[in-house]
Amino acid sequence: MLVPKMLQVAATAAISLMVSAGSPALADEPIKVKVLIGAMFEIGENTGDRAGEFQHWYERYFSQSKPIPVKGALSPVYCNDDGVCGSVLGMGKVASSSSIQAIILSPQFDMSEAYFIVSGVAGTPPERGTIADVSWATWLVDYDLGHRWAPEEGEPGAPTFMPRKGYEKVRLFQLNPDLVGWAMQLTGKINLKDSESARSYRMRYPQEAAQRAPAVKTGTHMTGDTFFHGPGMSAQAQYIAKLYGADDYLITEMEAAAIAQVVQRTLGDHRLLSLRGAVNFDQGNPNETTLEHLDPAPGQTAGGFAETVDNIAAVGSRMVDHIVAHWPEWQKGVPPLPRQ
Protein backbone atom coordinates (compact mmCIF):
# COMPACT_ATOMS: atom_id res chain seq x y z
CA MET A 1 0.00 0.00 0.00
CA LEU A 2 1.29 3.42 -0.98
CA VAL A 3 0.62 5.45 2.18
CA PRO A 4 2.31 3.04 4.64
CA LYS A 5 5.28 2.77 2.27
CA MET A 6 5.64 6.55 2.16
CA LEU A 7 5.49 6.63 5.94
CA GLN A 8 8.15 3.94 6.13
CA VAL A 9 10.46 5.86 3.79
CA ALA A 10 9.93 9.05 5.80
CA ALA A 11 10.67 7.26 9.07
CA THR A 12 13.83 5.72 7.65
CA ALA A 13 14.99 9.11 6.43
CA ALA A 14 14.28 10.66 9.82
CA ILE A 15 16.26 7.96 11.63
CA SER A 16 19.13 8.38 9.18
CA LEU A 17 19.14 12.12 9.78
CA MET A 18 19.13 11.61 13.55
CA VAL A 19 22.09 9.23 13.37
CA SER A 20 24.09 11.51 11.10
CA ALA A 21 23.36 14.61 13.17
CA GLY A 22 23.51 12.58 16.38
CA SER A 23 24.26 13.69 19.89
CA PRO A 24 27.94 14.54 20.53
CA ALA A 25 28.36 11.49 22.76
CA LEU A 26 27.21 9.20 19.93
CA ALA A 27 28.39 10.88 16.75
CA ASP A 28 31.65 12.62 17.74
CA GLU A 29 34.94 10.79 17.91
CA PRO A 30 36.34 10.59 21.45
CA ILE A 31 38.93 13.22 22.30
CA LYS A 32 42.41 11.80 21.93
CA VAL A 33 44.13 12.79 25.16
CA LYS A 34 47.89 13.28 25.20
CA VAL A 35 48.23 14.67 28.73
CA LEU A 36 45.65 14.79 31.54
CA ILE A 37 46.38 17.22 34.38
CA GLY A 38 44.56 16.53 37.64
CA ALA A 39 44.42 19.15 40.40
CA MET A 40 42.68 18.55 43.72
CA PHE A 41 40.94 21.86 44.45
CA GLU A 42 40.39 25.40 43.24
CA ILE A 43 39.75 28.24 45.67
CA GLY A 44 37.14 30.13 43.65
CA GLU A 45 36.78 30.56 39.91
CA ASN A 46 39.14 29.02 37.37
CA THR A 47 40.50 32.45 36.48
CA GLY A 48 40.46 36.04 37.66
CA ASP A 49 40.75 35.56 41.43
CA ARG A 50 43.09 34.00 43.98
CA ALA A 51 44.68 30.95 42.39
CA GLY A 52 44.31 27.49 43.87
CA GLU A 53 45.77 24.33 42.36
CA PHE A 54 44.03 24.50 38.98
CA GLN A 55 43.91 28.17 37.98
CA HIS A 56 47.40 28.49 36.48
CA TRP A 57 46.87 25.30 34.49
CA TYR A 58 43.51 26.61 33.29
CA GLU A 59 44.96 29.94 32.20
CA ARG A 60 47.83 28.26 30.35
CA TYR A 61 45.83 25.63 28.48
CA PHE A 62 42.05 25.87 28.85
CA SER A 63 40.89 29.49 28.85
CA GLN A 64 39.29 28.96 25.42
CA SER A 65 37.96 25.47 26.19
CA LYS A 66 34.38 24.53 26.96
CA PRO A 67 33.64 22.42 30.04
CA ILE A 68 32.88 18.76 29.35
CA PRO A 69 30.66 17.26 32.08
CA VAL A 70 31.58 13.70 33.05
CA LYS A 71 29.18 11.51 35.03
CA GLY A 72 30.80 10.53 38.32
CA ALA A 73 33.55 13.16 38.22
CA LEU A 74 33.61 16.05 40.66
CA SER A 75 34.21 18.74 38.04
CA PRO A 76 34.08 19.15 34.27
CA VAL A 77 37.04 18.27 32.08
CA TYR A 78 38.61 20.92 29.85
CA CYS A 79 40.54 20.02 26.70
CA ASN A 80 42.43 22.14 24.20
CA ASP A 81 43.10 21.44 20.54
CA ASP A 82 46.53 19.96 21.31
CA GLY A 83 45.12 17.06 23.32
CA VAL A 84 45.90 18.53 26.74
CA CYS A 85 43.05 18.06 29.22
CA GLY A 86 42.59 19.00 32.86
CA SER A 87 40.13 18.78 35.72
CA VAL A 88 39.70 19.36 39.44
CA LEU A 89 39.42 15.87 40.93
CA GLY A 90 38.63 16.57 44.58
CA MET A 91 40.56 16.30 47.83
CA GLY A 92 41.34 12.98 49.50
CA LYS A 93 41.60 9.43 48.21
CA VAL A 94 37.93 8.73 47.54
CA ALA A 95 37.02 11.97 45.77
CA SER A 96 40.12 12.08 43.59
CA SER A 97 40.25 8.39 42.62
CA SER A 98 36.54 8.20 41.81
CA SER A 99 36.86 11.28 39.61
CA ILE A 100 39.87 9.93 37.71
CA GLN A 101 38.13 6.59 37.18
CA ALA A 102 35.02 8.31 35.81
CA ILE A 103 37.14 10.35 33.41
CA ILE A 104 39.23 7.41 32.23
CA LEU A 105 36.15 5.25 31.60
CA SER A 106 34.12 7.99 29.92
CA PRO A 107 33.53 7.27 26.20
CA GLN A 108 34.07 10.98 25.56
CA PHE A 109 37.84 10.45 25.84
CA ASP A 110 40.46 8.13 24.40
CA MET A 111 42.98 7.75 27.21
CA SER A 112 44.84 4.81 25.72
CA GLU A 113 48.03 6.82 25.13
CA ALA A 114 47.58 9.56 27.74
CA TYR A 115 50.17 10.76 30.22
CA PHE A 116 48.93 11.78 33.66
CA ILE A 117 50.21 14.57 35.89
CA VAL A 118 48.70 14.62 39.38
CA SER A 119 49.48 18.07 40.77
CA GLY A 120 48.84 20.07 43.89
CA VAL A 121 50.16 21.58 47.10
CA ALA A 122 51.60 19.54 49.94
CA GLY A 123 53.75 19.48 53.06
CA THR A 124 57.42 18.63 53.47
CA PRO A 125 59.69 17.63 56.37
CA PRO A 126 62.17 20.42 57.20
CA GLU A 127 65.04 17.92 57.09
CA ARG A 128 64.48 17.45 53.35
CA GLY A 129 62.55 20.34 51.82
CA THR A 130 61.35 23.89 52.13
CA ILE A 131 58.46 26.20 51.31
CA ALA A 132 57.87 26.67 47.53
CA ASP A 133 59.88 23.55 46.59
CA VAL A 134 58.42 21.55 43.70
CA SER A 135 58.84 17.77 43.74
CA TRP A 136 58.42 14.95 41.23
CA ALA A 137 57.58 11.68 42.98
CA THR A 138 59.85 8.69 42.59
CA TRP A 139 57.60 6.49 44.75
CA LEU A 140 54.04 6.79 46.01
CA VAL A 141 53.36 5.24 49.41
CA ASP A 142 49.99 4.84 51.12
CA TYR A 143 50.37 6.00 54.72
CA ASP A 144 47.13 4.44 55.96
CA LEU A 145 47.11 0.74 55.11
CA GLY A 146 48.20 -0.86 58.34
CA HIS A 147 47.73 -1.06 62.10
CA ARG A 148 48.43 1.82 64.53
CA TRP A 149 48.32 2.13 68.30
CA ALA A 150 48.98 4.78 70.94
CA PRO A 151 52.68 5.14 71.85
CA GLU A 152 52.04 4.30 75.52
CA GLU A 153 50.55 0.96 74.46
CA GLY A 154 53.73 -0.31 72.82
CA GLU A 155 57.42 -0.53 73.65
CA PRO A 156 58.95 2.85 74.53
CA GLY A 157 60.51 4.47 71.48
CA ALA A 158 59.35 1.72 69.11
CA PRO A 159 57.35 2.38 65.94
CA THR A 160 53.59 2.53 66.40
CA PHE A 161 52.76 1.18 62.93
CA MET A 162 52.64 -2.30 61.43
CA PRO A 163 51.69 -3.02 57.79
CA ARG A 164 48.54 -5.00 57.24
CA LYS A 165 48.90 -8.11 55.08
CA GLY A 166 46.99 -8.14 51.82
CA TYR A 167 47.79 -4.58 50.74
CA GLU A 168 51.21 -5.26 49.24
CA LYS A 169 50.15 -4.40 45.68
CA VAL A 170 48.27 -1.20 46.53
CA ARG A 171 50.38 0.46 49.20
CA LEU A 172 53.51 1.14 47.12
CA PHE A 173 53.94 2.38 43.55
CA GLN A 174 57.27 3.08 41.90
CA LEU A 175 56.77 5.63 39.16
CA ASN A 176 58.52 5.07 35.84
CA PRO A 177 62.17 6.03 36.49
CA ASP A 178 62.69 7.04 32.86
CA LEU A 179 59.65 9.33 32.96
CA VAL A 180 60.80 10.89 36.24
CA GLY A 181 64.25 11.24 34.72
CA TRP A 182 62.79 13.13 31.76
CA ALA A 183 60.88 15.39 34.14
CA MET A 184 64.02 16.28 36.06
CA GLN A 185 66.10 16.73 32.93
CA LEU A 186 63.54 19.16 31.52
CA THR A 187 62.68 21.03 34.71
CA GLY A 188 65.39 20.46 37.31
CA LYS A 189 67.13 23.80 36.74
CA ILE A 190 64.06 26.05 36.57
CA ASN A 191 64.36 29.11 38.78
CA LEU A 192 61.39 29.02 41.12
CA LYS A 193 59.46 31.96 42.50
CA ASP A 194 59.86 32.84 46.16
CA SER A 195 58.45 35.42 48.57
CA GLU A 196 59.82 37.52 51.39
CA SER A 197 57.31 35.99 53.80
CA ALA A 198 58.48 32.47 52.90
CA ARG A 199 62.16 33.45 53.23
CA SER A 200 61.50 34.90 56.66
CA TYR A 201 59.45 31.88 57.78
CA ARG A 202 62.20 29.41 56.79
CA MET A 203 64.60 31.03 59.22
CA ARG A 204 62.46 29.75 62.12
CA TYR A 205 63.76 26.25 61.35
CA PRO A 206 67.35 25.21 62.13
CA GLN A 207 67.55 22.52 59.43
CA GLU A 208 69.76 23.37 56.49
CA ALA A 209 67.26 22.02 53.94
CA ALA A 210 64.48 24.15 55.41
CA GLN A 211 66.51 27.34 55.06
CA ARG A 212 67.45 26.86 51.42
CA ALA A 213 65.84 28.61 48.47
CA PRO A 214 63.16 26.53 46.71
CA ALA A 215 64.23 24.03 44.06
CA VAL A 216 62.92 21.18 41.93
CA LYS A 217 63.47 17.84 43.67
CA THR A 218 62.53 14.15 43.62
CA GLY A 219 61.51 11.82 46.43
CA THR A 220 58.77 9.71 47.95
CA HIS A 221 55.27 11.17 48.15
CA MET A 222 53.28 9.85 51.12
CA THR A 223 49.50 9.62 50.62
CA GLY A 224 47.28 9.83 53.69
CA ASP A 225 43.74 11.03 54.27
CA THR A 226 44.88 11.97 57.77
CA PHE A 227 46.74 15.28 57.92
CA PHE A 228 49.56 13.86 60.05
CA HIS A 229 51.74 16.39 61.79
CA GLY A 230 54.65 16.73 64.18
CA PRO A 231 58.19 15.31 64.33
CA GLY A 232 56.99 11.95 65.61
CA MET A 233 54.52 11.42 62.79
CA SER A 234 57.06 12.70 60.27
CA ALA A 235 59.56 10.12 61.52
CA GLN A 236 56.86 7.46 61.18
CA ALA A 237 56.27 8.47 57.55
CA GLN A 238 59.98 8.07 56.84
CA TYR A 239 59.94 4.72 58.68
CA ILE A 240 57.08 3.48 56.48
CA ALA A 241 58.77 4.67 53.30
CA LYS A 242 61.94 2.78 54.17
CA LEU A 243 59.99 -0.25 55.44
CA TYR A 244 58.39 -0.57 51.99
CA GLY A 245 61.63 -0.05 50.07
CA ALA A 246 60.97 3.48 48.81
CA ASP A 247 63.48 6.31 48.98
CA ASP A 248 63.39 9.31 51.34
CA TYR A 249 59.98 10.64 52.33
CA LEU A 250 59.78 14.16 50.88
CA ILE A 251 56.10 15.07 50.43
CA THR A 252 52.91 14.51 52.41
CA GLU A 253 49.73 14.65 50.32
CA MET A 254 46.29 13.04 50.19
CA GLU A 255 45.60 11.60 46.75
CA ALA A 256 48.40 10.26 44.55
CA ALA A 257 48.60 6.61 45.67
CA ALA A 258 44.84 6.19 45.27
CA ILE A 259 44.91 7.76 41.80
CA ALA A 260 47.86 5.55 40.88
CA GLN A 261 45.86 2.44 41.77
CA VAL A 262 43.04 3.46 39.41
CA VAL A 263 45.41 4.36 36.59
CA GLN A 264 47.36 1.13 37.05
CA ARG A 265 44.24 -1.04 36.94
CA THR A 266 42.81 0.64 33.85
CA LEU A 267 45.78 1.72 31.76
CA GLY A 268 49.01 0.87 33.55
CA ASP A 269 50.88 3.45 35.60
CA HIS A 270 54.02 3.76 33.44
CA ARG A 271 52.78 7.16 32.14
CA LEU A 272 51.93 8.65 35.53
CA LEU A 273 53.69 11.55 37.28
CA SER A 274 53.01 13.13 40.67
CA LEU A 275 54.01 16.79 40.99
CA ARG A 276 53.70 18.62 44.31
CA GLY A 277 54.64 22.00 45.69
CA ALA A 278 55.42 22.45 49.40
CA VAL A 279 53.32 25.10 51.16
CA ASN A 280 53.93 23.96 54.74
CA PHE A 281 56.33 22.00 56.90
CA ASP A 282 55.03 18.77 58.39
CA GLN A 283 55.98 19.94 61.89
CA GLY A 284 56.53 23.05 63.94
CA ASN A 285 59.83 24.74 64.64
CA PRO A 286 61.63 24.13 67.95
CA ASN A 287 59.87 27.09 69.57
CA GLU A 288 56.30 25.91 69.01
CA THR A 289 54.25 22.83 69.78
CA THR A 290 52.62 20.71 67.12
CA LEU A 291 49.18 22.07 68.04
CA GLU A 292 50.46 25.64 67.85
CA HIS A 293 51.82 24.93 64.38
CA LEU A 294 48.54 23.35 63.27
CA ASP A 295 46.54 26.36 64.46
CA PRO A 296 48.86 29.35 63.99
CA ALA A 297 48.10 32.84 65.21
CA PRO A 298 47.30 35.50 62.59
CA GLY A 299 50.40 36.41 60.59
CA GLN A 300 52.27 33.26 61.66
CA THR A 301 51.59 31.10 58.59
CA ALA A 302 54.30 30.04 56.19
CA GLY A 303 53.51 32.34 53.27
CA GLY A 304 54.53 31.49 49.74
CA PHE A 305 51.28 29.81 48.68
CA ALA A 306 50.76 32.02 45.63
CA GLU A 307 54.35 31.51 44.51
CA THR A 308 54.16 27.75 45.03
CA VAL A 309 51.05 27.14 42.92
CA ASP A 310 52.67 29.26 40.20
CA ASN A 311 55.86 27.18 40.49
CA ILE A 312 53.91 23.93 40.13
CA ALA A 313 52.37 24.99 36.82
CA ALA A 314 55.64 26.49 35.57
CA VAL A 315 57.48 23.22 36.22
CA GLY A 316 54.69 20.92 35.06
CA SER A 317 53.93 22.84 31.88
CA ARG A 318 57.55 22.38 30.74
CA MET A 319 56.90 18.63 30.77
CA VAL A 320 53.46 18.94 29.17
CA ASP A 321 54.73 21.16 26.37
CA HIS A 322 57.63 18.83 25.61
CA ILE A 323 55.40 15.77 25.33
CA VAL A 324 52.96 17.56 23.03
CA ALA A 325 55.69 19.13 20.87
CA HIS A 326 57.40 15.76 20.42
CA TRP A 327 54.29 13.59 20.32
CA PRO A 328 55.51 11.19 17.58
CA GLU A 329 58.36 10.17 19.92
CA TRP A 330 56.14 9.98 23.03
CA GLN A 331 52.95 8.50 21.60
CA LYS A 332 53.91 4.85 21.97
CA GLY A 333 55.73 5.20 25.27
CA VAL A 334 58.43 7.04 27.17
CA PRO A 335 61.44 7.48 24.87
CA PRO A 336 64.94 6.63 26.10
CA LEU A 337 66.59 9.36 28.11
CA PRO A 338 69.19 11.24 26.06
CA ARG A 339 72.72 11.02 27.36
CA GLN A 340 73.95 14.10 29.14
3D architecture notes:
One of its GO terms (molecular function) is catalytic activity. InterPro entries: Nucleoside_phosphorylase_sf (IPR035994), Pur_nuclsid_perm (IPR009486). This is Purine nucleoside permease. Strands 2, 3, 4, 6, 7, 10, 11, 12 and 13 form a nine-stranded mixed β-sheet that branches. Strands 1-5 form a two-stranded parallel sheet. It is α/β, with parallel strands linked by helices and 340 residues long. The chain contains twelve helices and 13 strands. The longest helix is centred in the C-terminal third of the chain and has 21 residues, at 305-325. It starts with a helix and ends in a 10-residue tail after the last helix. The protein has one domain (28-142, 173-330): Nucleoside phosphorylase domain (Rossmann fold, 3-Layer(aba) Sandwich), CATH 3.40.50.1580. Helices cover 36% and strands 20% of the residues. The chain is globular. It has helices at residues 2-21, 24-27, 55-62, 93-105, 177-187, 196-202, 208-211, 231-243, 256-266, 290-294, 305-325, 327-330; strands spanning 31-32, 35-39, 78-79, 84-88, 109-110, 115-124, 134-142, 146-148, 161-163, 172-174, 216-223, 249-253, 272-281. Helix 5 (177-187) packs across helix 11 (305-325). Strand 3 (78-79) and strand 4 (84-88) form a beta hairpin. Residues 1-27 have low confidence and may be disordered.
